[in-house]
Amino acid sequence: MITLKVNGEQRQVDVEDDTPLLWVLRDELKITGPKFGCGIAMCGACTVHADGTPIRSCQTMAADAAGMEITTIEAVSGKEAKAIQTAWEELAVPQCGYCQSGQMMSATALLRDTPKPTDGDIDAAMWGNACRCATYHRIRAAIHRAAEIMEG
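^ that's the sequence the OP posted. Answer follows.
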């Protein structure tokens, strides 16, 4: 039995220690925001926050996540998250939408740490978040717009 704190709630799951956190979230806890993309931490579709830091849940084992505060797209909050959500809607960022929860989780953490990111900051923070629809230009524009929204 492993105890995880997910989206502010203590949850116990009966899984093997080496079960990927993504499978615990989706299959055991029925939290479907994080998506399975590649399974090797290269696409970012499974991105969640662990103690505020973006991680790939497909390669994080359940036992390693015990003791961390895990936040998924369903519960991400704060001024950065709100600004990202607003900008994503204003600029119609998603096309198919599959990667967007991971994109938004990475972007939210970026704005928390770097409120006025440069293109270089955005590229570095978003590296490894793949978008098969190639909406990268809209993602970058939305991050800049979210920074403007946060400024007021």
